[in-house]
Description:
Elements: H1 3-26, E1 42-45, E2 48-51, E3 56-62, E4 65-70, H2 76-85, E5 93-95, E6 98-102, H3 108-145, H4 151-184
Antiparallel strand pairs: 1-2, 3-4, 4-6, 5-6
Helix pairs in contact: 1-3, 1-4, 3-4
Region (Disordered): 139-159
GO biological process, one term: cytoplasmic translational termination
Keywords: Cytoplasm, Protein biosynthesis
Amino acid sequence: MTIADIKKNTETKMGQSIEALKHNLSRVRTGRANPALLDAIHVEYYGSMVPLSQVANVSLMDARTISVQPWEKNMSAKVEKAIRESDLGLNPASLGDLIRVPMPPMSEERRKEMTKLARNEGENSKIAVRNLRRDANEGVKKLVKEKEASEDDQKRSEAEIQKITDKHIAEIDALVAAKEQDIMAV
């Protein structure tokens, strides 16, 4: 493995950390409805637990309501129960074979909880990025130790890896700040 391979690999993994953060932040509740909120919900389907999206069509009715339409009529009660029992604090209502999930307005206290959650997700992503930086720097040191790279190459690559890390941490901060702003908007 060369220094270029290490840098490319590190940047790819850091990009994956950012994608994971985006996915995790999409599940943090804001005042608006978002079908991704229901991604974590699993429903019992013929003896096994499957994600809600595999047994029903999840879409937006309006800015404050998510509609869930099970593909099989006998699944409506199970889907409704799974949504109600999730830790999201949602209260679904059945309209025949369509389930409406209205988003309750968030209190100030709940908004602050959600911003803490968003910050925590951001901090976890920063830790992951810093760990990737450490691993990359150790990989470069190993190449120097094995005399496959010079110490000058090591200094240069450590500086470049730090720039990549700084770029990704700034992106994480921007994502978290945007999510906090989204959560606090009334």
